[in-house]
Amino acid sequence: MARREKPAGATPAQKPKKKRFARTRQLKQVYDMTVRVDPGAKWWLLLAFAGPVVLGLLIGLLVDHPIYFTILGLLVGVLAGMFVLGRRAERAAYVNLKGQKGAAGAALSSIRRGWTIEQEPVAAEARTQDMVFRATGRGGIVLVGDGPPTRVKKLLEAERRKVARIVPNVPVHLFTVGDGDTEGEVPLHKLASRVQRLKPQLTKQEVAAVQKRLRALGGIRPPVPKGIDPMRARPDRKAMRGR
């Protein structure tokens, strides 16, 4: 009787190994990206890993349990190294985003909970490509300008007036992404934390009602060419007949 061949593919024992390799590759990619942007990160990682190991060894020698405390220090060192890598990688990602169009929206999107982030800009200037992004939460409404602070201020103020007409009693916070030298200007890597630190002023029910009203504003509408009234435009009947 012929033996049935097993279908090609990874065996159950190989699947965890592939996952481990995938995680290792991903970790290496994160490390390479971080060190490329922030060369000093490797020394902080080394300190975060080696510090607990050395400390554990010293404590172990004092209490006559060097192996136990060294292993404990090794585990703590791995956790500390992962934490430092995560923070440095996040900072490096913001450095890569800095100066790119839509960077403010990407920074807002890193907020995981408590705020509803509009994925598309709610206002934009076609000529300069300046944009305004919006977030809504218990702290109120946040409008973030993406562009040179002195230039995007006018676009921000216009959007603030528009929002105030729809929800007049809701606090509106204006931010612009920059170096943090002037009031309302926030560095890109601090934008998410600054928004999350806003004091709650609305209930969850009020936030839901505000979001419902803001949907009436819609998104960015494509501009109508000057000199054309779409309500009065008439088809060219001669062209339709092929003349």
Automatic annotation (TrEMBL):
Pfam families: DUF4191 (PF13829). InterPro entries: DUF4191. Keywords: Membrane, Transmembrane, Transmembrane helix. It comes from the Bacteria. The keyword Transmembrane helix applies. Residues 229-243 have a biased composition (Basic and acidic residues). The chain crosses the membrane at residues 43-61, 67-85. Residues 1-20, 219-243 are annotated as: Disordered. This is F0F1-type ATP synthase assembly protein I. It comes from Kineococcus radiotolerans. The lineage of its organism: Bacteria, Bacillati, Actinomycetota, Actinomycetes, Kineosporiales.
